[in-house]
Predict the structure.
Amino acid sequence: MKLSPEQVEFQDTVRNFLQEVVPSTYIRDRISAGRRTDSSLWQRLAELGFEEGFGAEPALFSIEELGLLAFELGYALSPEPLATRILATHVAPRMALLGYDAKTTTIAPRACCDLVIDPTDGALRGSIIAAPGCEGTEQLLAFASTPQGVRCVLIHLSAKGVQTKPSPSLDLTAALTDISLDSAAAISFSPEASAMVEDLTEAVYACEAAGVCQRVIEMTCSHVKTRSQFGRPIGSFQAVQQQLAQAHAHAESLSSLSRFAIWAAAHSPEQRALTARAAITQAADSAPRICEVAIQCHGGIGFTWEYDLHLYLRRALAIQAMFRLTAERADEILARAT
């Protein structure tokens, strides 16, 4: 899908800004210091005006721009989840007609949630494992089981019955949080609104994974053009070319599918659920494999701590863990496709 001139300018602005404020040196310094969030970085991100623009009435940016933002955050390996925070705070309430205050909100993907709404008193019980983006947020969108099916719920993280603690993360650039809930109050949304929130979340994460894949492909293409073996660039060897060409094809396919899923969320409600499921399923399947091919094409340097490829692989594996393909999800995708 071709981007408009305004969308190209939007994407270029985000990329240039992130290259300046989130270089590899910043990410590694932050990992070494063990900082789970950075208020000064959030301040710099706020200077771009994206949160204000998405939250304006009428909004200055659409869900398609949010997909581009998520793509660039994945490309830069941003340690702050700006896209999902904007989604939960501004975009989801407007698109799904959710009636809650636009306080700082984030989203826990459905696979992270093991929650039940007690039908007798409406209280929320259970746990959320490795919820992303909770540092510095006031509210959380999650998913809970009810006798009528899965519902999206809004949780106040400082409410009675809600306990949080830091969780270890394979993705060293992301801060995760374990949350336990014991008779906690929560706002439950309709089946239609719950489905839309889940679809939007999947489409945004698929865009982020596509950004990760494009970056590792670019890093690898640059490496194989300059790294020589037997007097020739290793990119001239057919075995390397075939692996990289296949990885590039998968990355382009994911990029196109994730952009279509974002477009469908805004313009084609009947296709929204299927395209979102297809995009995130492909992201969970292909993004880690693309990163692994990139590491292989780098040879020995690809496995070293000093090189950034393993950080991108960790991000891809984290997305895979949040949206793993279960038998239930596979049956749902097949049912929607037929």
